[in-house]
Specification:
Elements lengths: L1 H8 L2 E5 L5 E5 L4 E3 L9 H5 L4 E5 L5 E5 L5 E2 L4 H8 L29
Antiparallel strand pairs: 1-2, 2-3, 4-5, 5-6
Length: 114
């Protein structure tokens, strides 16, 4: 109820997908997302700078999902626990580097003279 009220105050509505997961919809921007929008996150969720996000399945059981590796686990990952406890977490699994496209070729006749 509290989350739904906060969501409505920011123009978001909560919905349940066929798989039981919650998703968020923002009518003004016609945007939907599985990830909780930042304006709806708790201070603890905002402080979680790890790639792990906590979810609940249709039966209410908590699980964690790593947005970079795609891995899901039932236990709280060590990175999250260390962050919550104020310990230094182990190195995070970083997303793969984004490859940059090659520079565009100049149009014919635009090359500098040799």
């Amino acid at each position: 109820p509290e989350l739904a009220a906060r969501a409505a105050a920011h123009g978001w509505t909560l919905h349940i997908g066929r798989d039981g997961r919650t998703f968020y919809y923002h009518a003004a921007s016609n945007t939907s997302t599985w990830e909780k929008p930042d304006v709806l996150k708790t201070a603890e969720e905002i402080a979680n700078s790890t790639p792990w996000t906590e979810y609940k399945n249709a039966k209410g059981r908590v699980y964690w999902h790593n947005k970079y590796t795609g891995q899901s686990v039932w236990h709280e990952p060590e990175e999250v626990r260390a962050k919550r406890e104020g310990r230094i977490p182990p190195p995070a699994i970083l997303p793969p580097p984004q490859l940059q496209p090659p520079p565009a070729m100049p149009a014919p006749g635009m090359l500098p003279a040799p």
